[in-house]
Structure formats: structure tokens, C-alpha cells
Amino acid sequence: MKPIVAIGDVHGLEKWRSIVDEHEDCTIVFLGDYLDPYEYITRRQQLDNLRDIIELKKRRMDDVVLLLGNHDLHYFCDRALPGSRYDFQIERFAEAMFNANIELFQYAYQQGNRIFTHAGIQHSWFVDDFKGDLTQPIAHQLNNPESIQFNAMLRLGHARGGRIGKIGGIFWADISELTDPLHGYTQIVGHNRVDDITERCGYNDNKIIFCDCLRNGKYYYEE
Fold first, then answer.
1. What are the phi and psi torsion angles at 206 (to 5°)?
2. Where along the sequence do coiled-coil regions lie (predicted)?
3. Alpha-carbon distance 21 to 118, whole Å?
4. What is the arithmetic mean of pLDDT over 56-66?
């Protein structure tokens, strides 16, 4: 298997370009959130940047993975709650771009016991809320949810403004909620801003690696 690179939340930044150029022999996983920048980036630049990421995927279908985040879903999914910095001036362009290329995106990616999602999977959320099957491939279940399971995937936990006692789904889970990541797996996620790649290990052969630090030029790499 190829070495793997995971690029955290893009949010309009172009730093991914040099990372991709440096790792042409790797599988590249984008962890989602392509729009809604924290800093000033023109709307044209944001959309062009997303378009270039989509074109990269089309050129390298077998070794580029595009995951979706909460800042992507809210532009084209009526069931997704709008996140911060939602931009009404680009919504119709973003919606059209995502819908025209929706087959290129996915919710989760898995290589063996490594699982990539936008925000991460708390073990109790997968078992109790998503009603997943721990004996079956995890990413396949997340990429092919039943309607009620998709509701759980879209859920906000209490840490992000949801109901008390609730844990966020794979688009919204907060770092404070991911205290016991999915047992038996190593997860690589974005969504929660960190200054550098940050690991959290559990007691059930479980680990979660937070990678939302592209703004600092940092990314996940594993041979």
C-alpha cells in the first residue's frame, strides 16, 4: 500500500498544493471543509480552489480521497444545519459544484484499522446512536447510511450547541466529546483546530489523530 497523507480542513487555503506536489507517490485524503475561511480569501479564490481540488481527484481517481465536512454539507444538503461563516453569496455556486461532482465525495474512508472522517467517531455514538455493526467495515456503513443513521451522522453534540448529553456525529463531533474513540481503530480527523498533529490514545486499542492544522502547514503522513 502507498504511504498516506491526510490534509486537514482547507477552508479556502492553497497550502495543500505544495503538499500534494511533495507526495506524488502517496494516497491523499482531504478531510473536508473546503470553503468558509477564517481569514480573508475572496469568494472567487475559494471556489477556484475547490474546483482545483475536484480536478485533482478526477486526474487521480484511485489515490485521492475527498471527504465531506459540515462546512460542505450545509451548501447542498437540506438536512444539514448551517455552520459558522456560511456564505449566502456563494451558496448557489457551491451547491452546483458539489451536486455536479457528488460522486467524487464520500463521508468516510478506511484502510484496514485506520478510519478517516471529518470530525471523528466516539465509540458510544457508533454503537448507541448510529446503531452500527462493529463486525462489518466501518466506512462502508458510514458511506451507505439508512435515513435514521444519517440523522445521527448530522447530529450536533452538546459541546457544539446540541442537546445536553448528546455526542456529535462524524461531521460535528467535538474534541471534548471524543474521549473514547471507536474501539480497535486508529482515526484520522479534522474539524477540531489544533496547532500541530495531535494524538489521543484510549484503553481499548483505540487512537484518534487530530489534523486540522493546515493553516500552519502541518499535515498527517504515514508510510
1. -125, 140
2. none
3. 23
4. 97
